[in-house]
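Consider this:
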Amino acid sequence: MILKTTTNFSLSLIAAGLLLTSCVNKQGDKQYEDPRDIPVNQVMQAELTAPPNVPTPVGKRMAKKLVVDMEIVELEGTMVDGVTYMYWTFDGTVPGSFIRTRVGDEIEFHLKNHPQNKLPHNIDLHAVNGPGGGAVSSLVAPGHQTVFSFKVLNPGLYVYHCATAPVGMHIANGMYGLILVEPEGGLEPVDREYYVMQGDFYTEGSYGEPGLQPFDMQKAIDEDADYVVFNGHVGALMGERALEANVGETVRIFLGNGGPNLVSSFHIIGEIFDRVTVEGGSLINENVQTTLVPAGGAAMLEFKVDAPGEYLLVDHSIFRAFNKGAMAQLEVYGEENEKVYKGKIQEGVYAPEGGAIQVMPIDRERVATSKTEVSEMTKEDIMERGRAIYGRTCFACHQNNGQGVPDVFPPLANADYLNEDIDRAIEITLRGKSGEITVNGKKYNSVMPAQMLSDEETAHVLTYIYNNWGNNGTGVTPEMVRAVRSK
């Protein structure tokens, strides 16, 4: 969604802050000190949107009776390539549909439980002032629906979630979303708005273990997450599904954290948040690098993009980003602005500890043989597994389409160095590489760390690379990897 404005961004931030902290509300020409007194005399069907989209801003509309229709759906979906999970959802997505309201709206909430579901569910909206946030009024069995009503009184960004026992299990299976309560007069307009929500998932199999993975209660109790993701699954906002903006535009991210356990240390690599509404409320923080969002909490983040390129959204509890899936992309298009970012202006080698790659001592033979072999895998299976491994081990340096990082990390796409010698590629993957190499006529001098992958994982990721981006189509086998490893 693109909302055009010519308002000076700095002034708009101040104005928005005043709106959020205002205690006087208007309905027509009359002012109301207490939002509970704001009358509603018109009925309006709520616009609900699936992530990462958000509904139309409320603007200056008057408070109304807002009818919200939401359906609970239990469905099997993809967690990461080759891995599926039985999600419990609001409206069939994780997170559930975004609800956009304004102070004084009376919400008539219709909650339906699909007849093919197996369990009862309800909803607890943190924007509700009342028992259980609506949970005590909304328990609904499969094949039934319930209707309850409440008035939104406090402006802010709030989480909603299922609160049926065991509550943690329902949330851990994906039952959460966001409801926004705009102040009277609405939020200040920006160019783009997006809906992003983090969640942690707990499966019987470890990260990437293929097949349908059941929920693991003990891991959830131990807070030992296998996946930490944005918008329900690994890669939900990557590649073709990346968020987008143009140079010079202002962006607002409605960020939530469904949990059920982990606090988010949210950061955008290469951006600074001009303004953050702390925990989704009225407190404003400015010029923020990383913001904490508690489980069951939210924040509104606003920033202006000044330079084109790829920006990564991460949980800066950083192993979650590169090893558990908490990563998304923002693609910014437009002309370079050297007043803001010039890029590399000098290159050299700095190796105070010598040229050897520093690695932790491990028993590589044990690592290579510790993973269960998956027999009779099709080419499609191998490619899916390879893509998943690439996403968690290679993506950060070599990028989504194998293009590398100019002057820093060499490309894997249509790379002569890669295609000339398969054994060399296997050797580098297993044992790493440092020093100068030439790829497609251009010199690179960086370090490739050794990868802790089994023979099978190494074969799958290299097969994926060789069969993409104009490379030679080689199929690498575990036997080929073992032969190189034994040398």
Q: What stands out?
A: The chain has twelve helices and 25 strands. Residues 1-23, 353-357, 366-374 have pLDDT under 50 and may be disordered. Residues 208 and 247 are 36 Å apart (CA to CA).
